[in-house]
Specification:
The complex is a heterodimer of chains A (about 400) and B (about 300). Chain A is an alpha+beta fold and about 400 residues long. Helix content of chain A is about 35%, strand content about 25%.
Chain lengths: ~400, ~300
């Protein structure tokens, strides 16, 4: 799960991390009010969207007066910001962070992530702050410093000190930098983060160490421990179909095409998207119905795929493990019924090709052949099914 | 033969009184698995499918001499259940549970250092040694006895691969679902090592996906150590960066972990990668013929 920068800073403040004073604003009036309250010489107006690269895209403005704050807030609120992380459609700015300006002397990079190969949290630092860290890693790997953290001990103070020295903090800032690292680590652990990224971490002209930007990501599996973090979710930042699916416990990613698929298991779902594309289709989505489906859940999955007329055809690709094929078959029937009730027409409005294998496959096939649903076709193989649905969608588009 | 489990392995089911666990306990028993005990705190004295239930793993091990455990407990208790199995000095713990917090798994991995237990999973379909025993949820009937070992990050792709192999007359030794989480007990290299040392296994099918660099590391290890042909498949070619594709571990982040990188690394060390999920079986057949072991592997 992602949260906004101002929320990340709020969380970090709880752990005693030094972040600039600031307030979120949802309107121009709130922005001006917040700037008045801050009373700083320079005020930063920052667009709050769930994507990086805001600065380059013109989403961060430096205001030297309240009039400028007002002008920038007016410009940014409601603006569609296109950054390298938003995709071509960009994201609408609904919130701003109004923050005091800092007297930056030098910028650094600091982050914490879970490292897969060592099964440890790793702290990554660099004196090349403010840049894309992937670029630094590619161009000057010697400037990337790593400290692997023993989970039984936590970040050891000597590691933080060593990191501060290796990042070339000036002597006056070493202690403050290492203390910041210790606090950031506590936040990472304390909130089940999957990433904490501070870019830039700055030293000011006054030798203070401040997290000028902050990006926190959370491990979805750990959220049950953090109801306070769940409350920070901004649903307007999410694709409406993805949001709908996640509220129903379905794993759905909108891919923009018109050949939908409903699959059990993430691996097979990814591979199904791949094979639809391989046979010339434009995949509409990734959809994993998960390990323990009910007919109701399957019906909802169909509604999501069909919503807004995005899908011109649906490929159901099931290999039953925990999922049972008969449950999937019943789900398809139930979906057809629900959709028929809503549209007043018989069956599902687009062709559905169904491929079933695995647990209770015979019963699943039996259910669908004994009580056939209009527009639902059984596929003998996955390959055949994928080709069949792509062909049917092409035909539907011609007509 | 095969690796990790056989028909004699005495197995515990942790969380046996849950609905899903009970369903799969029945399936595992029907497959021939020697399930000797179940564990659910507070349910000692009950039975599930005729299997006696104990309050703790320690009690179950004392009473039955079990050496392996399969875990079906809810995510928030899964790490604790794994550690309970490790502490009881089981040889093998297989954790089926998905959505286990990453921080919990980091602690589990630290706890396991220097201990004897091997962990498979979490978020995995389990393991199955053909015609002998299975721990987890892999459907038994799709498997045929033979000489190909299967390793996969994805449950349904494990079934898919073995199903295609069986249909092509290529039997298997053991299927190992290593799971889709970023931090897990057993990764490709560990599983490859097991098959490399197993006389029954003549070739290995490995199924990877986007995220992390385990496939690339495996490719390097195979080049340096593997005595047997390896055939691969990678899912997620069309996955957009930054989007988690269901599995916690399946995400392209910071430009790393793309399917293209993995396929390139595997091809570079001579491992054929199936073009689509539907051609895994035929890609294996082709490689077995090239290696001159097709007749030997054509067991069913």
């Amino acid at each position: 799960m992602n949260i906004h920068e101002y929320q990340s800073k709020e969380v970090l403040r709880q752990f005693g991390v030094n972040v600039p004073k600031g307030k979120p604003a949802f309107s121009v009036e709130e922005a001006v009010e917040a700037a008045k309250e801050l009373g700083s010489k320079v005020t930063v107006v920052k667009a709050q969207i769930h994507a990086g690269g805001r600065g380059k895209a013109g989403g961060v403005k430096i205001a030297k007066s309240l009039d400028e704050v007002k002008a920038y807030a007016t410009e940014l609120l409601g603006k569609i910001l296109v950054t390298h992380q938003t995709g071509p459609d960009g994201k609408k700015v609904n919130r701003l962070l109004i923050e005091e300006g800092s007297n930056i002397a030098k910028e650094y990079y600091l982050s914490f992530v879970n490292d897969r190969s060592t099964a440890k949290i790793v702290m990554i630092g660099s004196e090349e702050g403010g840049m894309e860290i992937e670029k630094v890693a590619a161009e000057s790997p010697e400037k990337i410093i790593k400290e692997y953290i023993d989970p039984a001990i936590g970040l050891a103070p000597f590691q933080a000190t060593r990191m501060a020295y290796k990042m070339n903090f000036k002597p006056e800032a070493i202690k403050k930098a290492s203390a910041t690292m210790m606090k950031l680590y506590n936040a990472f652990i304390g909130k089940d983060c999957s990433q904490v990224e501070i870019n830039p971490l700055v030293v000011t002209a006054e030798d203070d160490v401040i997290c000028l930007d902050a990006k926190l990501n959370f491990d979805d599996s750990g959220l049950f421990r953090h109801p306070d973090i769940v409350e920070l979710r901004d649903e307007t930042e999410e694709d409406p179909k993805e949001l709908w699916a996640s509220n129903e416990g379905l794993n759905y990613v909108n891919l923009g095409g018109d050949v939908a698929c409903m699959v059990n298991g993430a691996g097979l779902a990814m591979a199904t998207v791949d094979i639809l594309k391989y046979y010339g289709g434009e995949p509409a989505n990734f959809l994993d119905v998960g390990g323990s489906s009910t007919p109701e859940k399957i019906a909802t999955a169909f509604e999501i795929m069909l919503d807004g007329g995005q899908s011109k055809g649906i490929f159901v690709n099931i290999f039953g493990g925990i999922n049972k094929c008969d449950v999937i078959a019943e789900g398809i029937q139930k979906a057809a019924q629900i959709i028929a009730d809503k549209t007043g027409q018989d069956g599902i409005p687009v062709p559905v090709v169904v491929r079933l294998e695995g647990t209770n496959v015979e019963r699943g096939r039996q259910i669908l052949t004994e009580n056939p649903v209009k527009n639902v076709f059984m596929a003998p193989t996955m390959e055949g099914g994928a080709q069949d649905i792509v062909k049917r969608v092409e035909e539907a588009k011609k007509n | 033969m095969g690796v990790l489990i056989n028909k004699d392995t005495k197995v515990i089911v942790q969380g046996i009184t849950g609905k899903t666990a009970a369903f799969h306990t029945k399936q595992m028993l029907e497959y021939g698995t020697n399930i000797v005990a179940g564990v659910t705190p507070g349910k000692a004295g009950q039975t599930v499918e005729g299997v006696p239930v104990y309050d703790t793993v320690e009690d179950a091990v004392k009473a039955t001499g079990a050496t392996a455990s399969v875990i079906f407990v809810p995510a928030r208790f899964a790490a604790d259940s794994i550690m309970e199995g490790v502490e009881a000095e089981l040889d093998l713990v297989v954790c089926i549970t998905e959505h286990v917090p990453v921080q919990d798994m980091i602690k589990v991995r630290r706890y396991m250092e220097g201990k004897k237990t091997r962990l498979i999973g979490p978020n995995c379909p389990g393991i199955l040694t053909v015609d002998e025993a299975k721990m987890g949820i892999i459907p038994g009937y799709i498997h045929k006895k033979g000489h190909v070992g299967v390793i996969s990050r994805s449950g349904t792709l494990t079934y898919e691969a073995t199903f295609q192999l069986s249909n092509a007359g290529i039997g298997q030794t053991t299927a190992i679902g290593i799971g889709g989480d970023p931090i897990k007990g057993t990764d490709f290299i560990d599983a490859l090592k097991l098959f490399n040392e197993d006389d029954e296994t003549k070739a290995i099918m490995m199924i990877g996906e986007i995220g992390g660099t385990a496939e690339e590391e495996a490719a390097q290890w195979i080049k340096e150590n593997m005595k047997k042909p390896v055939i691969a498949f990678i899912s997620g070619v069309q996955a957009p960066p930054g989007k988690r594709m269901g599995h916690a571990g399946a995400i392209i982040a910071g430009g790393k972990g793309t399917a293209a990188d993995k396929i390139k690394a595997l091809n570079a060390v001579g491992i054929p990668v199936a073009e689509t999920v539907a051609t895994m079986g035929e890609t294996v057949v082709k490689k077995l013929k090239e290696a001159g072991i097709y007749d030997e592997c054509h067991t069913c």
